[in-house]
Amino acid sequence: MTNFTASDVLQFAIRLEENGESFYRQAALKADDTNVCSLFNRFADEEVHHKKIFEDFLSRVTSFYPPETYPGEYLAYLRDYMDGRIVFSREMGYELSGIQGTAAALDFAIQREMDSILYYQELKAFVPGKDYGTLDAIIAEERKHFSVLSEAKKTYL
C-alpha cells in the first residue's frame, strides 16, 4: 500500500483547488440565475484563496520527492493522478454540457464539494496520524462551500 505524506495530500489539494476554480468559472457561465452566477464566481475566487492557504500549508511541511528521471516528474505524476481520478476533473466541460438550469448546476457543485470532502477523509487512511490536522483544515475549507451551496439550493426547491 502506498503511503501519502502531508506534502502529497497538499499537492493534491492544490490541484483540486485549481480544477475547482475552473469548474466554478464554467458553472457561472451556465447558470441561468444571476445570484447563483455571482455565487459561482465568488467560489471560483475562494478556490484561488484556498489554493494559497494550501500552498502555505505546503511550505510548512517537509516535502518528499522520490528520485526522478527528469525534473518535475513526481509533481507531474501527482497532477495527472488528480486530473484523471478525482473530482473537478479537466473534463468537466463535458460533464457540465448536460446540466440545464440553476438547480441542476447547484446539485452538480454540491456533489463535487461532497466528493472532495470524502476524498480528504478517505486519505486519512494513507497518511500518518501527525498529518491529520492538515487534512482536517482542508476538509473544513471544503465544508464551507458545501454548506453555502446547500443553502442556496433551498431557494430552488
Summary of the model, kept short:
This protein is mainly alpha-helical and 157 residues long.
Report on this model:
By secondary structure, the protein is mainly alpha-helical. The protein has one domain (6-154): Ferritin, CATH 1.20.1260. It is 73% helix and 0% strand. The chain contains six helices and no strands. The termini are far apart. The mean pLDDT is 79.
Give the CATH H-level superfamily. Ferritin, core subunit, four-helix bundle
Helical proportion, percent range: over 70%
According to DSSP, the number of beta strands is 0
Instruction: Spell the H/E element sequence.
Output: HHHHHH
Q: With helices defined by DSSP (H or I, 4 residues minimum), what is the helix count?
A: 6
The name of the CATH architecture is Up-down Bundle
> What is the CATH class?
Mainly Alpha
User: Which descriptor suits the 3D outline?
Assistant: elongated
Q: Round the mean pLDDT to the nearest integer and report it.
A: 79
Question: What share of the residues does DSSP label as strand, in percent?
Answer: under 5%
Distance between the termini: 44 Å
Low-confidence stretches: none
Give the biggest sheet: none
Number of domains: 1
Gyration radius (Cα, Å) is 16 Å
The fold-level CATH name is Ferritin
What distinguishing features does this structure have?
157 residues, mainly alpha, Ferritin, 6 helices
Write the layout of secondary structure elements.
Layout: H1 6-30, H2 34-59, H3 73-85, H4 92-96, H5 102-123, H6 132-154
Helix pairs in contact: 1-2, 1-3, 1-5, 1-6, 2-6, 5-6
